[in-house]
Amino acid sequence: MKNILSVIITFFFSLLHAQTPYTIGETYTIHSNILNEDRIIDVQLPQNYSNQDFAKGKYPVVYVLDGDTNFSLVASLERFSTKFLFRSQPEMIVVGIRNIDRTKDYTPTKSLSKNKDNKLQYETSGGAENFINFIDKELKPFVNKKFRTTDFNILHGHSFGGLFAIYTLLNHTDSFDAYIAIDPSLWWDNKVIFKQAQEEFKIKDFKNKSLYVALAHEKIDAQKDRLEHGSTIRKFCEELLPTTQLYSSWKYYPDYNHGSVPIPSSYDAMVAIFKGIELPIKEIPQNPELLQETYDTFSKKLNHTFVPEESLLIELIKYTQRVNQQDNANKILTYALKLYPDSKQLKTMKY
To answer: Could you write out the DSSP letters of every residue in 131-200?
Structure first.
């Protein structure tokens, strides 16, 4: 009996000290008939997506290129940015698209550039059109069918991925509502996309579309190709963006190089895209009408319907109660129940 008790105690304490792996999202494999290959995606859902006490809300989606490296960054920023009352972006579904051949998928033309051995430097290049067709016709339908999504979509790309984002904006404008191009490779194939933008921005309607461009450090003594890379982005931002109807903004990051610039710019991009959605938290307990007014104004700006998340409303009700504005807390609760009538927890909150 003593030995059995000893085993039980040992097992109990082993459970207390057992390590549980921390994971970000779930991984799915889908077959693409367009690309003729299997593609792996990683998906992070909003914090309370599967919580039975919450109503079944719908969420915007951000599609992250170079998902192998950038998915965890964007997913972590989504969690951090939607944790508190002061939220610069809505809760979102984050989809990371892992790479097989990024040169093929992200470049719009076949490059004839050769290396020092007189061989094609980018032999597999030129598959961007196929890749956007894969996203539009296979990946998005998969995501929209499997998860609760709104019709607001963002494309996030860095380097070649940023080139692909601008290519998609120009050639498949309605594929996404907002585009993030981080240090995009606009030098590609004798600046073919830069030159297309010069023409398209004059004649095409980009109303209600958003674009954020990040430019990494342009080192004076850098190699010639790096200076060409940075100067082309700068010209794109300074000379071309002001000529469009885009909700566009850009920023130069002198303290970050091409590899590190996705870290600050991914956050800044979301702040820029969703400018106007952050609530005046301190004013709402005295003026709860500001809640709906803020979201109605922002929805009109982007021509999409946005509503505050249930998690935000719950924290806002509690905050309004803490500052002794119970009547206004009840008004917020009434508004919340109109948006989320099936919420179990909202129904238990006292009037």
So the answer is: HHHHIIIIIHHHHHHHS-EEEEEEEEEETHHHHHHHHHHHHSGGG-SEEEEES--TTHHHHHHHHHHHHH
Q: Confidence band (pLDDT; 50, 70, 90) for 7?
A: low
Architecture of the domain made up of 26-273? 3-Layer(aba) Sandwich (3.40)
Cβ proximity of 171 and 220 under 8 Å: no
Q: 38: helix, coil or strand?
A: strand
What 3-state class would DSSP assign to 111? coil
Q: Per-residue pLDDT tens for 170-193? A: 999 999 999 999 999 999 999 999
Contact 113, 120 (CB under 8 A): yes
Give the mean model confidence (pLDDT) for residues 321-333: 96
> What torsion do the CA atoms of 251, 254, 256, 258 make, to the nearest 10 degrees?
70
Is the sign of the CA dihedral 152, 52, 143, 338 positive or negative? negative
Structure tokens belonging to residue 292: 């709906």
Which two three-digit tokens encode residue 224?
A: 């010639």
163 vs 179: CA distance, rounded Å: 11
Distance CA 237, CA 30 (A): 36
Q: Kind and range of the H or E element at 269?
A: helix 262-273
Quote the tokens at residue 212.
Answer: 């954020």
The pTM score is 0.91
What lies within 8 Å, CB to CB, of 10 at 6+ separation is none
- Strand locations in the chain (E): 26-32, 37-44, 59-64, 93-97, 149-158, 178-182, 210-216, 247-253
Q: What pLDDT, in 10s, does the model give residues 47-63?
A: 999 999 999 999 999 99
- Cα–Cα distance, 186 to 199 (Å, whole number): 15
Q: Where in the chain is the domain with CATH 3.40.50.1820?
A: 26-273
Where does residue 215 fall: left (phi above 0), alpha (psi -120 to 50 degrees), or beta otherwise?
beta
Q: Phi/psi class of residue 25: alpha, beta or left (left: φ > 0; alpha: ψ in -120 to 50)?
A: left
Residue type, 136: D
